[in-house]
Amino acid sequence: MIGLTHYLIVSAIIFSIGLVGVLRRRNLLMLFFATEVMLNAVNIAFAAISHYYNDLTGQMFAFFIIAIAASEVAVGLGLLIVLYKKYGSLDLDDLASMKG
Question: What is the pLDDT of residues 23-44, one digit of tens each?
Fold first, then answer.
């Protein structure tokens, strides 16, 4: 039988994969993807804990996180398109030398 511990372990593994992605990537698009993976790992943990305690609070938090992630993607991808049109690259090392 799959219990709460199994879900939390899977969530921790997925979160650590996302964290490694955030720390290792130099491409902004991949950085956004890694952030989404981390948010989905938190959603799994919230939903599992919510189901374990028979309370809907964790699932409501997961829905709010999904809404925030969707707005983050919309704004972030818009900014990425503008940056790519302006500089021709999404590499963080190239963008770090921007002059304002």
Answer: 998 788 888 899 999 999 999 9
Residue 77 and residue 73: Cα distance in Å, rounded?
Answer: 6
Helix orientation angle between 4-24 and 28-52, rounded to the nearest 10 degrees:
170
In this structure, are residues 48 and 11 in contact, taking their beta carbons and an 8 Å threshold? yes
69 SS3 class: helix
Instruction: Compute CA distances 43 → 2, 49, 57, whole Å.
Output: 18, 10, 12
Residue 18: CB atoms within 10 Å: 20
Domain ranges of the chain: 4-89
Amino acid at 70: A
Q: Give the CATH number of domain 4-89.
A: 1.10.287.3510
Residue 94 predicted with pLDDT over 80: no
